[in-house]
Design a protein that fits this description.
This protein is of the alpha+beta class. The protein contains 3 helices and 5 strands; from the N terminus they run E-H-H-E-E-H-E-E. A 5-stranded antiparallel sheet has the order 1-2-3-5-4, with helices on one face.
């Protein structure tokens, strides 16, 4: 009689923290997310580590600059789902206004955050949350097993990112879930 093979269940690892809705809070969210990614096996300087860190930085900055309600914090949730091979980033704030992905002019100093998120994440969206406000989320594809052996290539194109064939603002990549 053959012995059934045991399948190891997919694990989900979680990091959750609240931060003050200040520039310092957004910076701390980015730094702690970067440290957590290293703990999960995604070394600094690799494509997946840097993509997720940039997504966290942009969503946290948006929560501080556009979603700030005086006296209220914002929350960061990172969920590493080994079964789906994604890291989900969720940033929740108490402001009711929903963000939109708009292309800014070349000489404007802001307005590129969600364009970056759209280019780096496999999908992203906005959902209501319990209580006031909303949660902006993004899912970044990662390799199986939490290892990312590919650092950025050296040379003048170092750090280049993939983009969707439909362009960086393709509506087919967004969803409200």
């Amino acid at each position: 009689m053959p012995v059934p093979h045991a399948h190891s269940p997919a694990t989900t690892r979680v990091f959750a923290q609240r931060f003050s809705a200040t520039r310092r809070g957004a910076r701390l969210a980015r730094l702690l997310a970067a440290l957590q990614l290293v703990e999960w096996g995604y070394p600094r300087g690799t494509n997946h580590h840097d993509a997720v860190t940039i997504v966290v930085a942009e969503l946290a900055a948006n929560a501080v600059l556009h979603g700030r309600v005086p006296g209220r914090d914002f929350a960061l949730l990172l969920r590493c789902d080994d079964g789906r091979h994604v890291i989900r980033v969720e940033v929740s704030d108490t402001h009711p206004a929903r963000p939109s992905c708009v292309r800014s002019g070349d000489d404007e100093e802001c307005g590129r955050g969600l364009v970056l998120v759209d280019a780096l994440a496999a999908s992203w969206g906005v959902r209501d949350r319990t209580g006031p406000g909303k949660t902006v989320w993004a899912e970044c594809a990662v390799p199986r097993g939490g290892s990312d052996p590919e650092p950025y290539p050296a040379g003048p194109k170092a750090g280049g990112r993939r983009s969707s064939p439909e362009g960086p603002m393709s509506p087919s990549r967004h969803s409200g879930s």
